[in-house]
């Protein structure tokens, strides 16, 4: 009966997804929720304990342009201070309590800027997370109680999170637990879609809740405390499906499998057609696996799902948007939603993301060539025309591109650099964001130097706007059928400043060791194919055999 | 005490005259538009903006008011904000600010700006400073390099920063110092330095040089300082050397003496005042301008300003409190957020939460001064004061210094102050005779309404 109810709830839920355009595996879609729609692929606003790191809301959040479409929160950060009972008592769910009305909310099980798992062992019944208040053991019941209090538009099922380098045996255990926990979450989801009485029964069945929470939960789920979750209080069973706290929430099934393609395929197949699954979350990625291996891992998960399932179910990939290239790579594999570590790192986001995305519609190669060679540190070049040969994609000539020595590349500028001390220009010419309209590079540079909080505010405002614009460019590229071209062009720009390792390094020889390995001088990401190959070729040692490469200091 | 009686009379006489006080300086027009008792509501036209006083000026020490954008400061109706000469000369340097078109341009703040002289750092960084007749040598806490701040240097720096109001370099001694000779020296040196400041000031048509009255807690020295500075006929005057740990009883008396002794047609700026109660008391005594880091700093410690006093948001009592910070405040934060939400995230490394409380605290202090101005203009200021104190001290336990100050201001606290003997609340009138403190209703000086 639960399955039938779940199926029905799927049909009546206010949250649904449809694909509108495709380009290869990449797809454009629209995710509709009762709190607004999201055009995908989309990056969700990062929040920590429910709030953006530096942007005040609603004013600064509303000023982001193109606008923020959806918000990500980490459900695990609501286990304590506040906990589910407090949020329930408030009565407005995450939207009300966190003042995020008007934004679709995705409740993830993960925070993209800090890893909460693995500090202590998990068990078959509970996963261990380490949050602001310390360590917590979280069962599906406890997790779903928190989710039900938050009432998000989408949420990820409980997952035994393991990193990509985890050994196969542990990965298999994680898959087993995650699948079992998915079943539990599905059942609880269905229950939370029913009216309050059933919900009360669920809570009273939690025999030994942690530290007084269960008692609170039972006490507060009285029929008299009406309005907590909009319960109409009439009838029971299938007809009252829209009266529970999670009636309009979409469950994203956690797809586990660590860093092993075969295991990921197996895990995905196991959950593929479970009733009540409304979407998928690619768990366990962005945990240290080399980015070039990631497409295969994503492909293994999504490839094991029937096409019909993917057609109407969004794919959420937490932890991947740490760089523009990784974002693009994820989209290329069919990811629809991502959280955002790009904008909100734990360290100061001193870089203003400038990114290669069009500030204007002008796409003539001549214009973009001129802009690329303009010598400005910000690389706001136009996009290449859809039917242009790849060779026309402008690459900055050597020496005329962004100034790497001050920490700039074609997608960001480092405002710590003293070269901006007197720069009255906006962070990114042509950008319409709050910061670029109102303030100068010199001011932001000064604020960084003086360690003023406003530096973070202004940079987050710009960087968030910029990522939103980047996503818009991605969506346009997909719907116009030129996404692969866009991705290649973007990567070529980023790879241009990378230099191969010098043949003769001037570092000291170690007393004990063999001749130094030659390493790439630039500590850039592995995005530039040419650069990486050169570095690998120049390095000595049996690296291919799997021995870890010794790290060396190379003085250049 | 006699001094206060005499000066009160002087003030009374001038305010009962036909025209309200005003002054016209090259870069500043000050016009009192309403008076009630010693309090006045005024308009101060500066090169960048016309400010309304009494006003509170948030402090943007290093070129920003901690986490707030200039747009938000405008939305909250701030009229003048502060920049700190010492810090801005350190980073980014006044020459750079000048090259960027002045501080207004650099930070994109179109309204009024005030820079202090750098003198306060003398007090707060004293272990790194040496004061001579020439000036003050600082050892920069950033990199240990030596900075000499002479009156000429201070003015030159402030000329480059370009604020509407610049402060003279004064020799300020902490009020807690027990060294009468030092206070004497500082009083006279401040006068000598004002002449050097005036001589060094290269933009008197665009920037207003305010002098700062010193003298510690000594009424004689304060009188000397006031006379000497007023003789220089500056656009405005500040009351300095306070907010440094002196007792509240001493504090209000110095403020009262100075507001009574300074020309009524010119703005009076009490430096370093930020507790709402202090702002109210000083305004009642005739002060016009205030600045302090208190509202913004205390916000970052999770403390919100409310009519009843303060809310310590980290306190467990707020974990389930779903009310706004201040139900009577209509700022964005109070219209949107609950105490319960802020309780968890303020001071926990999530800057946006600190900024939200900062936003409210700035809104609160701006509303406070706005309401005072309106009350004065509508001739109901004493009622407003009684209402304010009644909310803050519902049990009637108004501090003695506030009662004394309001007495000097000519504002009756009848109905607000609890009789000192009665354990339960009884009408104040019946116990007036038994009250030993001077907090009951007799209005001193006669002519003041209320």
From TrEMBL, chain A:
Residues engaged in binding Zn(2+): 431, 433, 436, 462
Q: Which UniProt keywords apply?
A: Cytoplasm, Metal-binding, tRNA processing, Zinc
Q: Region entry Disordered: which residue ranges?
A: 196-240, 356-396, 504-556
* Required co-factors: Zn(2+)
GN (gene name): PLEST007410
Name the UniProt record assigns to this protein: Queuine tRNA-ribosyltransferase accessory subunit 2
Q: Which organism is it from?
A: Pleodorina starrii
Q: Where is the composition biased (Low complexity)?
A: 196-229, 362-392, 520-545
Q: How does it assemble?
A: Heterodimer of a catalytic subunit and an accessory subunit.
UniProtKB/TrEMBL annotation, chain B:
From the Swiss-Prot or TrEMBL record, give the protein name. Answer: Queuine tRNA-ribosyltransferase catalytic subunit 1
Keyword Transferase found: yes
Family under the similarity heading? Belongs to the queuine tRNA-ribosyltransferase family.
Region RNA binding, residue ranges:
272-278, 296-300
Task: Tell me the GO BP annotations in alphabetical order.
Answer: tRNA modification
Quaternary structure, per UniProt, is: Heterodimer of a catalytic subunit and an accessory subunit.
Please name the gene that encodes this protein: PLEST002805
Extract the InterPro entries matched here.
Answer: TGT, TGT-like_sf, tRNA_ribo_trans-like
A GO molecular function assigned to this protein is:
tRNA-guanosine(34) queuine transglycosylase activity
| NCBIfam families (UniProt xref) | Q_tRNA_tgt, tgt_general
What reactions does this protein catalyze?
guanosine(34) in tRNA + queuine = queuosine(34) in tRNA + guanine
Domain of life, per lineage:
Eukaryota
Q: Which cofactor does it need?
A: Zn(2+)
Where it sits in the cell: the answer is: Cytoplasm
Where Zn(2+) binds, per the record, is at: 329, 331, 334, 360
Where in this protein does the record put region Disordered?
A: 422-450
Which residue ranges does the record assign to the tRNA-guanine(15) transglycosylase-like domain?
38-388
Organism of this sequence: Pleodorina starrii
Instruction: Spell out the Gly residues composition-biased ranges.
Output: 441-450
Which purpose does this protein serve, as stated in its record? Catalytic subunit of the queuine tRNA-ribosyltransferase (TGT) that catalyzes the base-exchange of a guanine (G) residue with queuine (Q) at position 34 (anticodon wobble position) in tRNAs with GU(N) anticodons (tRNA-Asp, -Asn, -His and -Tyr), resulting in the hypermodified nucleoside queuosine (7-(((4,5-cis-dihydroxy-2-cyclopenten-1-yl)amino)methyl)-7-deazaguanosine). Catalysis occurs through a double-displacement mechanism. The nucleophile active site attacks the C1' of nucleotide 34 to detach the guanine base from the RNA, forming a covalent enzyme-RNA intermediate.
Q: What is its main location?
A: cytoplasm
Q: Does the keyword Flavoprotein apply?
A: no
């Amino acid at each position: 009966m639960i399955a039938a109810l779940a199926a029905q709830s799927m049909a009546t839920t206010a949250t649904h997804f449809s694909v509108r355009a495709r380009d290869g595996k990449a797809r454009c879609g629209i995710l509709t929720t009762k709190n607004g729609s999201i055009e995908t692929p989309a990056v969700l606003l990062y929040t920590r304990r429910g709030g953006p790191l530096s942007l005040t809301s609603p004013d600064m959040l509303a000023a982001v342009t193109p606008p923020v479409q959806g918000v990500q929160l980490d459900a695990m950060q609501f286990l304590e201070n506040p906990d589910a009972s407090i949020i329930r008592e408030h009565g407005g769910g995450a939207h009300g309590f966190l003042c995020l009305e008007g934004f679709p909310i995705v409740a993830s099980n993960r925070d993209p800027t800090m890893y909460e798992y693995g500090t202590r062992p998990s068990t078959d019944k509970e996963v261990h997370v380490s949050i602001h208040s310390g360590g917590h053991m979280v069962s599906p019941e406890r997790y779903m109680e928190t989710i039900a209090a938050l009432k998000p538009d989408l949420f990820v099922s409980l997952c035994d999170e393991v990193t990509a380098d985890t050994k196969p045996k542990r990965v298999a255990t994680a898959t087993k637990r995650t699948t079992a926990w998915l079943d539990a979450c599905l059942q609880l989801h269905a229950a939370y879609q029913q009216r309050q009485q059933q919900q009360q029964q669920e809570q009273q069945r939690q025999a030994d809740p942690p530290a007084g929470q269960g008692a609170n939960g039972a006490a507060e789920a009285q029929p008299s405390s009406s309005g907590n979750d909009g319960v109409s209080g009439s009838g029971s069973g299938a007809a009252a499906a829209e009266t529970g706290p999670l009636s309009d929430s979409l469950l994203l099934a956690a797809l586990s499998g660590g860093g092993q393609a075969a295991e990921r395929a197996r895990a995905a197949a196991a959950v593929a057609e479970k009733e009540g699954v409304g979407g998928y979350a690619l768990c366990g990625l962005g945990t240290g696996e080399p980015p070039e291996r990631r497409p295969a891992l994503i492909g293994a998960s999504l490839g094991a799902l029937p096409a019909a399932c993917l057609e109407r179910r969004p794919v959420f990939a937490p932890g991947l948007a740490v760089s523009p290239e990784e974002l693009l790579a994820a989209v290329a594999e069919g990811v629809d939603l991502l959280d955002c570590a790009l904008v909100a790192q734990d360290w100061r986001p001193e870089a203003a993301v400038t990114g290669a995305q069009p500030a204007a519609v002008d796409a003539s190669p001549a214009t973009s060539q001129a802009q690329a060679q303009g010598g400005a540190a910000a690389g706001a070049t136009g996009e290449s025309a859809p039917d242009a040969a790849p060779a026309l994609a402008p690459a900055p000539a050597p020496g005329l591109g962004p100034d790497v020595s001050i920490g700039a590349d074609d997608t960001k500028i480092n405002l710590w650099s003293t070269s901006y001390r007197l720069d009255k220009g906006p962070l990114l010419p042509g950008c319409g964001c709050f910061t670029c309209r109102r303030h100068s590079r010199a001011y932001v540079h000064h604020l960084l130097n003086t360690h003023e909080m406003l530096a973070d505010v202004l940079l987050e405002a710009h960087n968030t706007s910029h990522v939103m614009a980047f996503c818009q460019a991605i969506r346009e590229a997909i719907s116009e059928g030129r996404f692969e071209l866009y991705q290649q062009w973007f990567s070529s720009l980023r790879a241009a400043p990378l230099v191969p390792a010098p043949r003769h390094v001037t570092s000291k020889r170690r007393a004990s060791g063999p001749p130094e390995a030659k390493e790439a001088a630039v500590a850039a990401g592995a995005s530039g194919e040419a650069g990486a190959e050169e570095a690998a070729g120049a390095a000595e040692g049996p690296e291919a055999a799997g021995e870890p490469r010794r790290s060396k200091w190379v003085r250049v | 005490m006699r001094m206060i009686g005499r000066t009160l009379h002087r003030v009374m006489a001038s305010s009962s005259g036909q025209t309200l006080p005003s002054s016209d300086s090259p870069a500043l027009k000050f016009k009192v538009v309403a008076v009630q008792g010693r309090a006045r509501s005024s308009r101060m036209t500066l090169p960048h903006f016309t400010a309304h006083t009494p006003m509170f000026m948030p402090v943007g020490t290093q070129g920003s008011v901690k986490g707030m954008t200039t747009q938000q400061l405008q939305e909250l109706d701030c009229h003048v904000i502060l920049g700190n000469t010492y810090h801005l000369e350190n980073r980014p340097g006044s020459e750079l600010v000048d090259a960027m078109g002045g501080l207004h341009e650099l930070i994109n703040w179109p309204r009024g700006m005030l820079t202090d002289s750098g003198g306060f750092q003398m007090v707060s960084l004293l272990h790194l400073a040496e004061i001579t007749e020439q000036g003050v040598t600082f050892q920069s806490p950033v990199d240990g390099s030596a900075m000499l701040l002479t009156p000429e240097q201070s003015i030159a720096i402030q000329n480059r920063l370009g604020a509407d109001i610049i402060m003279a370099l004064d020799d300020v001694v902490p009020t807690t110092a027990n060294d009468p000779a030092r206070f004497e020296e500082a009083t006279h040196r401040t006068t000598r330095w004002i002449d050097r400041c005036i001589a060094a000031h290269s933009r008197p048509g665009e920037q207003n040089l305010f002098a700062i009255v010193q003298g510690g807690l000594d009424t004689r020295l304060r009188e000397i300082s006031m006379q000497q500075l007023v003789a220089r006929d500056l656009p405005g005057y500040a009351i300095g050397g306070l907010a440094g740990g002196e007792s509240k009883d001493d504090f209000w008396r110095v403020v009262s003496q100075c507001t009574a002794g300074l020309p009524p047609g010119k703005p009076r700026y009490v430096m370093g005042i930020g507790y709402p109660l202090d702002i109210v008391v000083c305004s009642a005594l005739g002060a016009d301008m205030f600045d302090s880091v208190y509202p913004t700093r205390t916000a970052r410690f999770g403390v919100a300003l409310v009519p009843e006093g303060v809310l310590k948001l980290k306190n467990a009592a707020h974990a389930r409190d779903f009310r706004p910070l201040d139900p009577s405040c209509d700022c964005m934060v109070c219209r949107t957020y609950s105490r319960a939400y802020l309780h968890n995230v303020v001071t926990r490394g999530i800057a946006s939460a600190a900024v939200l409380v900062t936003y409210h605290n700035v809104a609160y202090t701006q509303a406070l001064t706005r309401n005072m101005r309106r009350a004065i203009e509508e001739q109901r200021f004493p009622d407003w004061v009684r209402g304010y104190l009644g909310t803050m001290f519902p049990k009637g336990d108004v501090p003695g210094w506030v009662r004394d100050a309001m007495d000097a201001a000519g504002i009756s606290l009848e109905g607000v102050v609890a009789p000192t003997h009665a354990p339960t609340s009884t009408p104040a009138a019946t116990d007036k005779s038994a009250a030993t403190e001077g907090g009951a209703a007799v209005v001193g000086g006669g002519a003041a309404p209320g």
